[in-house]
């Protein structure tokens, strides 16, 4: 059977046990601009890459405040994200009105996962074409969750979603063990380095296309960060001090250049493997 025999409805399984409409929704998330999330013992951080449809258009909003202690970054269809973020706000408000306490982050993420799961079970609906990175802080500390259109949600030390997010994941996997003890400035710098990996070669991070979201109580050493609330979004000029801390990609390699030039045999070494590689290709 061809694949398109089973991809017209989200409630029909293929013989391989797959729901193709759900997989198409996951592809919509991969088409969105990248978002990166990290957490330490004291803070959770979101970094997102904003897109603009043209020189005359403004940059698309990538982060939304859900409650004082919760914020999200999106990748995928912004219209679906608006609907789900409003639902999350309703859940957070209901918790305050009924229980007189902020909603736990894991319960909030589970609520939107359950809502997305319904769309994979009922006829006539379609899965949401958006993925979330959710950061929050409750009595158990800072958290980072990923929400998927398939209805799955997982907690992470660090995560990336969106276009070319695998490059950011590779960076995060190399450094995630040091995130727990990082202060806020170092955590943001790691996030910017990971976000930079998702850019095209001719693009750079700047104050217009970068957003930073932070959860965690502000302290005295957090210079330039407004302590207006536990969750705050930094954009435009507020991002510039952190962009200046980015280490250039060729920065660590610069000290190694003199050592390579000092060795006379160094230029001759790559020549032989190049010839062998050509013979192997032939």
Automatic annotation (TrEMBL):
UniProt xrefs under PROSITE patterns: PROTEASOME_ALPHA_1, PROTEASOME_ALPHA_2
Start-end of Low complexity biased regions: 254-273
Compartments where located: Cytoplasm; Nucleus
SUPFAM superfamilies (UniProt xref): N-terminal nucleophile aminohydrolases (Ntn hydrolases) (SSF56235)
Keyword Cytoplasm listed: yes
Cellular component, GO, one term: proteasome core complex, alpha-subunit complex
Region (Disordered): 248-282
Keywords for this protein: Cytoplasm, Nucleus, Proteasome
InterPro entries documented for this protein: Ntn_hydrolases_N, Proteasome_alpha, Proteasome_alpha-type, Proteasome_alpha1, Proteasome_asu_N, Proteasome_sua/b
Domain Proteasome alpha-type subunits, residue spans: 6-28
Major location category of this protein: cytoplasm
Subunit structure: The 26S proteasome consists of a 20S proteasome core and two 19S regulatory subunits.
Family affiliation: Belongs to the peptidase T1A family.
Protein name: Proteasome subunit alpha type
Organism per entry: Ephemerocybe angulata
Native organism taxonomy: Eukaryota, Fungi, Dikarya, Basidiomycota, Agaricomycotina
């Amino acid at each position: 059977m061809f694949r398109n025999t089973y991809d017209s409805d989200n409630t029909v399984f293929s013989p391989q046990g797959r729901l193709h409409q759900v997989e198409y929704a996951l592809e919509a998330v991969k088409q969105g601009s990248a978002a990166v999330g990290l957490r330490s013992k004291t803070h959770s951080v979101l970094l997102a890459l904003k897109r603009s449809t043209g020189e005359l258009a403004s940059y698309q909003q990538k982060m939304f405040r859900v409650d004082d202690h919760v914020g999200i970054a999106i990748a995928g269809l912004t219209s679906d994200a608006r609907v789900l973020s409003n639902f999350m706000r309703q859940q957070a408000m209901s918790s305050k009105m009924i229980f007189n306490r902020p909603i736990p982050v894991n319960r909030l993420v589970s609520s939107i996962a359950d809502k997305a799961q319904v769309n994979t079970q009922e006829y006539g609906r379609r899965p949401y074409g958006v993925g979330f990175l959710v950061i929050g802080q409750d009595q158990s500390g800072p958290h980072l969750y990923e929400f998927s259109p398939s209805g799955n949600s997982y907690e992470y030390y660090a995560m990336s979603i969106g276009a070319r997010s695998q490059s950011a994941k590779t960076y995060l996997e190399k450094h995630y063990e040091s995130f727990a003890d990082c202060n806020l400035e170092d955590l943001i710098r790691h996030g910017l380095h990971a976000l930079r990996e998702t850019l095209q070669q001719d693009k750079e991070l700047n104050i217009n296309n970068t957003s930073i979201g932070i959860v965690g109580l502000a302290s005295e050493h957090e210079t330039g960060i407004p302590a207006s609330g536990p969750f705050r979004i930094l954009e435009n000029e507020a991002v510039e001090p952190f962009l200046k801390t980015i280490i250039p990609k060729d920065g660590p390699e610069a000290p190694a250049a003199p050592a390579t030039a000092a060795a006379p045999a160094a230029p001759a070494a790559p020549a032989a493997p190049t010839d062998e590689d050509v013979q192997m290709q032939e």
